Amino acid sequence: MLVEKDIVILGGGIAGLWLLNRLRSLGFTAVLLEKSTLGNGQTMASQGMIHGGLKYALAGALTGASEAIAGMPAHWLRCLQGQGEVDLRGVQLLSDSYYMWPRSNMRSRLTAFLGSKLVSSKTTEVSAEAVPEFFKGHLQGPLYRLHDIVLDVPSLLHTLGEHCRPHIYRSACKIDHDATGNIRTLVLDNGSRLKASIYLCTAGAGNEELLHTLQPPALAMQKRPLQMVVVKHRQPYPLYVHCLADQFSSTPELTITTHPCQDGSFAWYLGGGLAEAGALVDGPTQIRRARAKLAELFPWCNFADAHFHSFHIDRAEALQADGKRPDRDSVLHSGNVLYCWPTKLTLAPALANTVIEKINELGIRAGSGNDAPISDLQYPGVTRPVWDTL
Ligand SMILES: Cc1cc2nc3c(=O)[nH]c(=O)nc-3n(C[C@H](O)[C@H](O)[C@H](O)COP(=O)(O)OP(=O)(O)OC[C@H]3O[C@@H](n4cnc5c(N)ncnc54)[C@H](O)[C@@H]3O)c2cc1C
């Protein structure tokens, strides 16, 4: 059976789900194919921070990255209130702010930097009364509050998925290309063939394999590895903080977010410099490093009976000449395929705007395909977060 749609999206992370929501609300007959479960790649592994780019500005002057990202927390907040282009009222806000905690040696430099006109509207120094419970009685210098937010990613994926549930399918697909690299059709698990005016590859690290099916294969993607650490413990205080080391860098030495687990406990999720520096070491080494870092930063806490777990994951992005993080979202156009990378969860709305502009430029119009559901394929469901699998 041949099924025709305006648009087919390959990959159900934040990029594909946000795009599906936008495109369907614009009237396109769009469907999404996920080969595993929604969020199974980077999205469920992310820390859920929607940031305004201040941490990038820390590395020096404002960069393209910090400018592209500056308006994003406000943009997402409008969506969370049901006033944006995608309705996120079902999504749980874990924190409406984020803290930045400098080491003693960089405090004076940081205070001067944060006082500069460039960033003063994005941060406030936390008064003694407003210091989060966790730090009370233990702070010897200033703590800064960023106007960034943290989202519960499982509820984000559930909400985006449920909005478009009848148009999301679990299926691998075999790609049938013509001689010029255009996709002719996709052959699905139920044997039907799917044809669209345009195909959007939002498969994260999976885009690499899709790019290799081109003739000649395109080298257009880079992966930057991390080893993240999850800590389940008895600390009663949720913590959202960038711990800044002695030098100015766009990567804090440790970035901590806190996530509710299904068993009622909380997990701290550790990223930042710890995850980057530990990308190539084995799990036990990374866990030793994480324990040592927590003991050094928070000597008033006891992690003796905490449960530590680490795992490797790659950030998948458009290839950069210097191998560093791209400044913004990226789209590569080849024939009737757009290969898409948001670069950050935060930038998914910006990526959708870039893609929609491109689709308009290409003259693809809404409503030409058949919107009937594809039979014999199931909704993929949402991936379980790692802290619920321990
Ligand atoms: C550890 C970590 C922490 C992060 N923290 C943050 C953060 O706090 N804030 C922030 O803004 N950004 C963060 N990021 C970046 C952010 O998570 C990613 O930029 C974003 O999630 C990428 O989304 P995506 O939809 O492009 O890809 P992914 O989330 O990787 O999704 C790709 C999907 O495609 C599917 N797939 C793969 N191949 C195929 C195929 N052939 N057919 C169909 N489906 C396929 C996969 O199963 C997967 O579900 C973090 C990244 C990592 C790795």
Please give a quick description of this structure.
The chain contains eleven helices and 19 strands. It has 390 residues and is an alpha+beta fold. The chain folds into two domains: 175 residues, FAD/NAD(P)-binding domain, CATH 3.50.50.60; 152 residues, D-Amino Acid Oxidase, Chain A, domain 2.
How does this model look, in words?
- There is one protein chain.
- The chain is an alpha+beta fold and 390 residues long.
- The chain folds into two domains: 2-43 and 156-220 and 321-388, 3-Layer(bba) Sandwich (FAD/NAD(P)-binding domain); 93-149 and 223-317, D-Amino Acid Oxidase, Chain A, domain 2 (2-Layer Sandwich).
- The protein is 24% helix and 27% strand.
- It has eleven helices and 19 strands.
- It has helices at residues 14-25, 42-45, 54-57, 64-69, 72-80, 107-115, 153-163, 207-212, 273-277, 283-297, 348-361, and strands at 2-10, 30-34, 49-50, 93-95, 98-102, 123-125, 144-146, 149-151, 168-170, 173-177, 183-188, 193-201, 221-232, 241-244, 254-260, 266-271, 307-318, 330-334, 337-341.
- Strands 1, 2, 9, 10, 11, 12, 18 and 19 form an eight-stranded mixed beta sheet that branches. Strands 6-7-5-14-15-16-13-17 form an eight-stranded mixed beta sheet. Strands 3-8-4 form a three-stranded antiparallel beta sheet.
- Helix 1 links the parallel strand 1 and strand 2.
- It is elongated, with a radius of gyration of 22 Å.
- The two termini are 42 Å apart.
- The mean pLDDT is 91.
- Bound molecules: flavin-adenine dinucleotide.
- The site of flavin-adenine dinucleotide has 37 residues, from helix 1, strand 2, helix 2, strand 13 and strand 17.
- Flavin-adenine dinucleotide is lined by residues 10-16, 33-36, 39-43, 45-49, 202-204, 206, 210, 226, 228, 271, 313, 315, 341-346.
